[in-house]
Amino acid sequence: MKKSFSVEYNQFNHWNELTKDDQSLVESAIDAMSKAYAPYSKFSVGAVAILSNGELIKGSNQENIAYPSGLCAERVALFYAGANFPNESIDTLCIVAKGDLVPEETILSPCGSCRQVMVESEKRQNKSYRIILVSQNGATVIFNSAVELLPLAFGV
Ligand code: THU
User: Fold this and answer.
1) Catalytic residue positions, numbered
2) Which of 72, 83, 69, 70 is nearest to 121 (CA)?
3) In total, how many domains does the chain have?
């Protein structure tokens, strides 16, 4: 039996087309990105999660000379949220990035490990959350759930 997945998302030419609230989330993610520690890849990533109590949780990628010891911005933010606000749910996660690692027009897309963590954080809170991905040229895509980004995630 042949089966398939389809992925739904909304696309915008630039994040300035988003609602005012979403634009301010992007601005917060840009601020988070400015605090990245990325001396090895020179690719800075910022992630901000807005929680149901209005709290903004900011994360940025934190690298280490022992490369695999570093952590992506998304997981820094999600694990901080889980550790400090275990009873609050995430409403939206917004991610931005900057650097020469990928061309400006490449759609920013979280790595597989972060997607796995995103899926489980949705499961943990029993509710999906929006994911706003802002590329370096400003182009933006919005997903309504992490599951759209990782169908058949491990163990969930
Ligand atoms: N990075 C993130 O922070 N998030 C992702 O989803 C992909 C990659 C970081 C890890 C590393 O510090 C740098 O970007 C280059 O891979």
Assistant:
1) 74
2) 83
3) 1
